Amino acid sequence: MRSTSNTIRTRRTVKAAATVLAGALTLSLTACGSDDDKSGGSQNTGTKASGDALTLPKLDGTTLEVAAVWTGPEQANFKKVLAEFEKRTGAKVTFVPAQDPIINFLGSKIAGGQPPDVVMLPQPGAIKQAVDKKWAKPLGAEALKELRKNYSQGWQDIGKVGAEQYGVYYKAANKSLIWYNAKVFENAGATEPKTWDELLTTAQTVYDSGVTPFSIPGADGWPLTDWFENVYLSQAGPEKYDQLARHEIKWTDPSVKEALTTLAQIWGKKDYVAGGADGALQTQFPNAVTQTFTGGDQPKAAMVYEGDFVQVNIAQTDAKVGTDAKVFPFPKVGDTAPVVSGGDAAVILEDSAGAQALATFLASPDAAEIQAELGGYLSPNKNVDPAAYPNDVQRKIAEALVAAGDDFRFDMSDQAPQAFGGTPGKGEWKDLQDFLKNPTDVAGIQAKLESDAAAAYGN
After folding, report:
1. Burial degree of 132 (CB within 10 A; 0-12, 13-18, 19+)
2. Cα separation, 459 vs 457, whole angstroms
3. Which helix (H) or strand (E) holds 172?
4. Predicted confidence (pLDDT) per residue in 120-134, tens digit
5. Would the pTM count as exceeding 0.85?
């Protein structure tokens, strides 16, 4: 099965988006010292939450279940959004922890006669599967009205299947960022790189200072796909990226070989990865972040690649974003720096007034601003007040995402059938874990990627 064409970004240049992202981040990090300022977000959220811009129905006696794979602080913060919905409607909402692959989780719940009312789906391919299985229900008039008012056409389109709107992209991610320990960079005399070659130079400078350059969460396959996508988009270009996302070209294509060979310059470099390949393959994402920002000026690693949501995990350390923990855009490998985004969409499974009202709420700035204030969250909603974000770094990342409009590419693995792009221990996740373990076997990994993709896409 392949994703429908409207889940894939139109073939526009990413140059404008990359420029605004790089400029915004540069300004935010040179202008702010300690920017742990939450006053603007608190004031704004309080105003919006009590405002009358969004009218929701009274739902006393209504019970709803919302399922998502979110855990830890991410889950706790989302529950505060649900609590506001309860306060404003009288409904009772229960959060249901889900597991990956989420389509399999939903299948078991539906087979048992206990589907959640609303599910947060992290892949356009999963939305397509839910529609094909006749699980998903279209958005109603009020939710559509709120969505069209607050979202660019591109973010609306990736929640569609055919001409029908099923998803509200409540949460987005800028997945083209590298976070670094500022003290390590200062001690090493390292500078923020703008190109891949400069990144390699920075890594060597950090290594020479006595600190391992990179923390890689190899135990989780999805960050490895994100590494690949940033290299591939910048190096091969947006047209090739779209073709590979649709499996119109094979994973044995020379462009894939070039990207994997480029990745191996870091993944295969002795002592560049904390714990080596074996250690990385046992390191989960939260630990990959926290080990970069603990240990004073001798952490286990100096840099960790991932999206804006890294801030949630940095908050579990003593490091402060903007001073101890800083960020730069993923360096350009080809002509332009990449802009890769991801996200989670609210999809209705049990159609009711309550479920439609929750989808409407999640499409509004009111809901997004509550979670924005709490940090580690990014909304594609263009009417969210930037003042809701808790620090200048997050604020500038959010503004850059909105300013990019439709000029971005959605996470490639999230566009793929879940069997290939979203299943732990299988498909692309497992293949790239194998590549991390043995980065010299480019041809072998290409062949395995193509075999797994062909089986999942059915072509």
Report:
1. exposed
2. 6
3. strand 167-174
4. 998 888 999 999 999
5. no
